[in-house]
Design goal:
Layout (H helix, E strand, L loop, with lengths): L2 E7 L3 H14 L5 E7 L6 H8 L5 E3 L5 H10 L6 E5 L3 E3 L4 H10 L3 E10 L14 E3 L5 E3 L2 E2 L2 E2 L10 E2 L7 E5 H6 L12 H11 L3 E12 L10 H18 L2 H24 L3 H17 L4 H10 L13 H7 L5 H6 L20
Parallel strand pairs: 1-2, 1-4, 2-3, 6-13
Antiparallel strand pairs: 4-12, 5-13, 6-12, 7-8, 8-9, 9-10, 11-13
Length: about 350
């Protein structure tokens, strides 16, 4: 097949019942097939799929392997030119698939892309998990066109241009299968959270490109598996972010970034304490201890990434502190970050239509 739209499900029966019919209706493109991979759900997802969606192929995994390993195990069983990793809580729109496929077909230098992600509960706003494409500052903090920390913008067409990005959201990620496996796939050890950013970083380091194509628009519920306020989510985000930095940072940056992150993470824990979010504060300290414990297991991955990398100075990674710009300079939106000419944002010009990105 040409396009495998793969939903990794874990106890998402209600989401599948609600959004899978819309996906079927809006994804009638030649060569596209919808596949559900189940992470050993206990909520009767399997029974519901077999009864209500018998035509949808079902891959049954023997336990909950998490997002990263679950997808790796499922995708190894699928032969397709393109994979689309799609969350079960995403509602697609009519013809959402066409701009993604059309762009990828004529831009072989692009490894992966994402649509514009809108908040399903507030359809006039961008969605936290991906907005209109993601970036990273020098200390490892993520932001998007449409979302910087907790400031989420209204979608007023301000980011309706195709743009190179540092990472594309795992909520709806289209990736060439060849690039996916050339970069090693998602890192199983992450379990969940930031594994797609790590994958995009590795693909970008190999000289491949990542873009957002906002002509394609999907709506995302968000937080369907782990609520944003869940301390376990805090733990995974902090731990995986540190592991990702260790795996991918150039040698001349690693020590400095890790020293700074020690103090920034301590400050984050203090802020949680001041807000009486004791579980989140404990999660930060636990994440740092776990990172220290796991760090030796990631040394080989780091050496391999550095050895294979052909691009260390990635334009979409900003050479500035997002915390400083956001909290001190009060630059709360991507547009405000871009307008600050005193610091390099780390982006390259946007791309309109199907003009090659190198022009």
């Amino acid at each position: 097949m040409k396009i495998a739209i793969v939903i990794l499900n874990w106890n998402g029966k209600d989401m599948l019942k609600r959004y899978l019919p819309v996906l079927q209706k809006c994804s009638d493109v030649e060569g596209a097939q919808i596949i559900v991979a189940d992470n050993d759900s206990t909520d009767a997802s399997i029974e519901m799929m077999e009864k209500q969606f018998p035509s949808v192929p079902l891959i049954r995994l023997d336990r909950n392997y998490g997002f990263a390993k679950g997808y790796n195990m499922a995708l190894r069983q699928i032969e397709a030119e393109y994979y689309i990793l799609l969350n079960s809580d995403v509602e697609v729109t009519q013809d959402w698939l066409v701009p993604l496929v059309s762009y990828m077909d004529v831009h072989p230098e692009v490894a992966a892309c994402q649509p514009k992600l809108i908040d399903l509960k507030h359809p006039d706003k961008f969605e936290y998990a991906g907005g209109a494409g993601g970036y990273m500052d020098k200390w490892g903090y993520m932001y998007c066109r449409g979302r910087v920390f907790d400031t989420i913008e209204k979608d007023e067409g301000q980011y309706d241009t195709i743009a190179p990005v540092f990472w594309a959201t795992g909520a709806c990620l289209m990736v060439r299968s060849a690039d996916y496996w050339a970069a090693g796939g998602l890192d199983d050890r992450f379990f969940a959270h930031q594994e797609e950013i790590d994958l995009c970083w590795r693909m970008r380091s190999l000289g491949r490109r990542i873009v957002c194509i906002p002509e394609s628009r999907v709506l995302h519920v968000g937080g369907a598996t782990l609520d944003k306020s869940n301390p376990y989510k805090t733990f995974l985000n902090f731990r995986n972010n540190l592991l990702m930095l260790y795996k991918n940072l150039p040698e001349d940056e690693l020590s400095k970034v890790m020293r700074v992150r020690f103090w920034l993470d301590s400050l984050a824990a203090l802020m949680f304490i001041l807000k009486f979010h004791w579980g989140d504060a404990k999660a930060v300290f636990k994440a740092r201890r776990e990172f220290k414990r796991l760090k030796p297991q990631f040394l080989d991955s780091r050496m391999e990434n550095l050895e294979e990398s052909s691009l260390t100075d990635i334009p979409e990674r900003g050479d500035f502190s997002l915390l400083w710009r956001y909290h001190v300079k009060r630059q709360k939106t991507y547009s405000q970050l871009v307008s600050d000419s005193k610091c390099s944002l780390g982006t390259v010009p946007v791309v309109r239509g199907t003009v090659p990105m190198d022009q």
